[in-house]
Model the fold of this input.
Amino acid sequence: MLVSTTNTFGGVEVDSESDGEDQDKDRALHPSPQQPQISATSSSSSQTLLPSSPSPHLLAFSQQHLSPSRPGIHPFISSLKSYLSPIDPIPYFTDLVEIAEGESGSVYAARVSASAMPEIRSAGEREIQAGTSHVAIKRIILPSSPTLDPASTSTDDSPLVSKVSSLLHELTLLKGIEHEHLLLLDAVYATSNDADTAGQASTAVDSSLWIRMELMERSLADVIGLVSEGLALQERMVGRFASDVLLGLEYLQKQHVAHRDVRSDNLLLNAGGIVKIADFSNAIRVTRNAPMVTGAVGVMYWQAPEMRAGPYNALKVDVWSLGATVWELAETVPPFSMPASPSTHTTFALARHPGSQWPPLSHPEHYSKAFHEFLRHCGRDPNGRPGPAELLNTPLIRNACGRAVILQLLSQCRSIEESMIARENSDRDS
Done:
């Protein structure tokens, strides 16, 4: 069994070098295949999951049987008009539980109401699959003044403007894209019938934006954070995680889309043990004949070094980032975050082509030849770096564990977290 020996809890908090998106601090929902259960754990991703009690501020309003209506579109979100669902979401998503809080809004876990949703939907809206009991809702509060011009906003409103712009970018980029290993935005709603506008007429201007997504179990960063608490990560598990990511990247490359922010915080596991790539705010679409772009985005430790050296092939960088994540799964910290010597970090920061110069693993003898080979492939010069399709045929991936093993791993995560909570409660009582 391959267990990292570095004693670090959770991921490394770093400042993104991209668009300054808020990094929500989440709680994790631990569902069985039939019914979600609730347990608390820390996370740094923005698509995950549940604390222990409903938010009373929203709960009363989510239980009202309101008829679907479309209030006046707020000027801040007028650019999203073609993507907005025509229905009011409040009657259909109940028992809202706040699971993350960020600068631009909070994320909630919401129970899907038994009431059938209207058939009418926006062009890009995805239908809720039969049997789905919970979804994730990100709720963004809009400025109270309906006459406010988003082009002349104050400094306080600039994060909101950036978020709406990023949302439009994602919706436009991902239109028509669908894959098992991608976590997409399923629907966007606007409503004035929530707690902040109680008592106002239904024709009032929108007061909040609701973004619906699949409710996920946890991020790979959450999994890594439990290694110091006794969780054992086997090499074959890492192979399964990498396989899922490669399948998603292979599909994206066929669509000429580069994610450009692949890292443990953006790789999320659902209740079925399937890894999905999340957060497309830094993604870009290129053409087959012109894949070269400029601009370093993402977070440094997972960022392909050629991104800092001028024009780079956007379709090559995600494989390097996956390699960095595989290295992180072995060491519990991202590469170059704790350099073995000052020269290794300097080499990374300045190198145009890093080749296979990953920092040495603390216990390389614990890992197979296939594991080391996979890392070497991911760290190659971009011109020689294999694509996702080629990496899917490497020994590490071919020898990956089955899905049942990942489900057992998730069960172990829950057990460890329950023990941690019990220990914290005991310490507090004493």
Q: What stands out?
A: The two ends are 36 Å apart (CA to CA). The chain has ten helices and 13 strands. The first helix runs from residue 56 to 62.
